Amino acid sequence: MALIRRLPDGLVSQIAAGEVVERPASVVKELCENSIDAGAAHVQVELSAGGTRLVLVGDDGAGMEPEDARLSIERHATSKLADAAGLSAIATLGFRGEALAAIASVSRFTLTTRPPGALAATRVRVEGTGDPRVEEAGAPEGTRVEVADLFFATPARRKFLKRAATEAGHCVETVLRLALCHPEVGFALTSDGRRVVTTAPGAPLRERVALALGREVHDSLVELSGLSGRVQVTGYCAPPDQSRPNGRDVLIFVNGRAVRDRALAQAVFRAYASLLPPGRFPVAAILVALPLEEVDVNVHPQKLEVRFADPRAVFEAVSRTVAQALRPAPWLAKAAPPPPPSARREVRGAAPVVREAGLADGGWLSPSFPMERSHLGASPGAPPSEPRGYFSSLRVLGQLAGTYVVCEGGGGALVVLDQHAAHERVLFERLREARRGKALSSQRLLLPAVVELSPRTAEALGARRDRLAEFGFEAEPFGGQSWSIAAVPALLAHAVPGPLFAELADGLVHFEDAGAAEDAVNDLLATMACHAAVRAHDPLSADELRALLSALDGIDFKVRCPHGRPVVTEIPLADLERRVGRR
Ligand code: ADP
Ligand code: MG
């Protein structure tokens, strides 16, 4: 007896309709979801030309009998939903019975399937809107779907596909997200014969999170776990120093689905609020599990959004769990006030990392300060003969909380600068000036630096080597997801090359994908500037502070850093006097 049934018309009309197939990644998503629903332990994905020429998904799941194989490509035919009551508690990834029909109608489609123990496999072929052909075939147990020449009959839609590398990148991302929330299933993805993703069934969640969010976060990931009422939250998040320039690396999963949910992303941002400067975003994979009937998955055609019966409760659960995981972590100690003076003296000799007001003995350079003094810009001996600008004329009083440069300005005003924002502004303006109409000049590294990129970026970056050169990088693929960096932008030669490169690469791929690469030049430069700028809690010597101030005089000064944060605040003496009751 066939398991698949056509949904009655009344029920069809209750299903969120819309475009299921937008690009190769949507095909990959629907086919992999079917494999997971079929109980597969291994899912294999093969792409050719980014999936525009071929998407192949094979599994070792339950397979289909001949009658089901034939029904599977009919619209609204599904084995996963029986009646309207079923819609309120959907336990499978699919339920609408329209994906195979939709995919088959816009491609050259072949499905070959054999349930375990069956003597033969069934093969169903369709070309676009033509009639299906069904035949017996020899094939291993499980199901294999081949989708060739997507949109072959609709050139207008085919035209909207991006370059193969971009489409491949999206497919990789789709598989990594499914792999993350289905650790029981092993995934393998090849793109034009190259192996891009391999995960064994049952591989630890941390591994899969690192695969999706970048190798470099693996060791520092903090585990999350919390239960509030009926909402369970698990997953991993990265410490605040692994922040990103946008919120794209906050991944949200609900009951085994990757979803876009602004509110839940906000819940994560809120938990990090006091730990990250404005304009920086956390890295996290949040898995929310709650009773099926408390979440409606039937709201988005591609099932990318869900609706909660009690959104507030889910928001609170996520925010609380993330905040709790971050609380005992060691980075909070960094923000703690410096030790009392007696303790300080003992530390000084061995490791001069303590900042203090006064800086009378300026000139000590902390070993933890990651860059040459010269990058701050003051060529030694050049500022005194020229007229002194506003910043150079400030008298530096010291560094506050390792983060702010406190100075005395004209008329006794208290001037407070955010050291990161200020340095970022300087680097940004210099980069912008240098980039105007030409490529950034680069500086070769003594030894190439190797960096592991996210699979999606590594895949999509291959076609963008020319753009890298415009930003001063010389780099090439180094096997797997690694790239080898031979040269970096000369203006940022002091920065650690790997993370700087990774952040630019992510940005390039993202913006080009959104068709905005040209307009995004400033965003990309801001990202690089932010990355290469001194951080809060980087100790700065007196010379370095002064170099920073004179560099600020040397740029076309805007009061805000590229991320919109004020660089400097001035408190007139009169205001202070009012506060202490002198006026
Ligand atoms: P849905 O997943 O919403 O039911 P689809 O069009 O994706 O709709 O699939 C139709 C039906 O075909 C499914 O309900 C399932 O019974 C069957 N099917 C699809 N893919 C597979 C697979 N890989 N293994 C076994 N059965 C499958
Ligand atoms: Mg499906």
* Total beta strands: 24
* Rg for CA atoms: 28 Å
Q: How are the strands ordered across the major sheet? A: 7-6-5-8-3-2-9-10
Small-molecule binders here are:
adenosine-5'-diphosphate, magnesium ion
> Residue share in helices?
25-40%
Structural class comes to alpha+beta
What fold name stands as the CATH topology of the largest domain? Answer: Ribosomal Protein S8, Chain: A, domain 1
> Which architecture of the largest domain does the CATH hierarchy give at level 2?
2-Layer Sandwich
Largest sheet: 8 strands, mixed
* Bulk shape: elongated
Tally of domains: 3
Quaternary state of the chains: single chain
CATH H-tier superfamily of the largest domain: MutL, C-terminal domain, regulatory subdomain
What proportion strand? 15-25%
How many H/I helical runs?
18
Low-pLDDT segments, ≥5 res: 330-382
User: Which class of the largest domain in CATH terms?
Assistant: Alpha Beta
How are the SSEs ordered, and which strands pair?
Layout: E1 5-6, H1 9-12, H2 24-37, E2 42-48, E3 54-59, H3 66-72, E4 77-78, H4 99-104, E5 108-114, E6 121-127, E7 133-137, E8 142-148, H5 155-159, H6 164-181, E9 186-191, E10 194-199, H7 205-213, E11 222-228, E12 231-237, E13 250-254, E14 257-259, H8 262-272, E15 284-289, E16 295-296, E17 307-308, H9 311-326, H10 331-334, H11 341-350, E18 395-400, E19 404-408, E20 414-418, H12 419-435, E21 442-452, H13 455-461, H14 465-470, E22 474-477, E23 482-489, H15 497-513, H16 521-532, H17 542-553, E24 568-571, H18 573-579
Parallel strand pairs: 2-9, 13-15
Antiparallel strand pairs: 1-4, 2-3, 3-8, 5-6, 5-8, 6-7, 9-10, 11-12, 12-15, 13-14, 16-17, 18-19, 19-20, 20-24, 21-23, 22-23
Residues 4, 30, 34-35, 38, 59, 61-64, 72, 78-80, 94-101, 143 line the site of adenosine-5'-diphosphate (ADP).
